[in-house]
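Retro notes
What went well: the complex prediction finally ran end to end.
Inputs used:
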Amino acid sequence: MQKMVNKAKILAGGALTAGLMALSTSATAAPVLGAQLYWAGGDITITVQPATAGYVSELKLFSADPDIFLALNTAVGTTVTLDAATIDMGHDIGDELVFGIFVQNTGDTFLMGPGSRNADGLIHAAINDLGGGVLRVGFEDIRGGGDLDYDDNVFDFRGGVRTGTVPEPGSLALVGLALLGAGWASRRRVRTAA
Ligand SMILES: [Ca+2]
């Protein structure tokens, strides 16, 4: 999606581009509950952000076997690298990377993605696409969902990772139409030139 929008920025001019950018920004500015992460190839870096948890949790990659410990939520400011070779052992590019937290105090594990993955049936993580290649993932660390503001544990993901989040249907259709229009315009220019 990001690539398509970039392409549109180059191809489409003026007000249309401004409109597109506003649309794509507004579509990704809020945390998306239950959103998922996918491997885009390459290393991934994860930085522990300040958060509100009273518990100590371990961020792990659970779609690896055995799961891979990455960081404690209490290690604020720490950046860890999940290197491509390690990811590649259990994943192909495009595969979902299922991260989650193991809460040391309670023994609970909560995974990103749909609530059906968790013992309480609830969504425990949200992704906020901050732009600039930063995907901010926030977790709720209490069984039953706690206060559902997804700020108990917060981690910023960068590098070879993307989110499955798509713009809302309305803005997606508009982006598609704009791309179609931009494609037509560029083809016509090529034809005229030839
Ligand atoms: Ca909370």
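What we learned: The pocket of calcium ion is lined by residues 52, 140, 146-147, 149, 151-152 (CB under 6 Å).
What to try next: split runs per interface for comparison.
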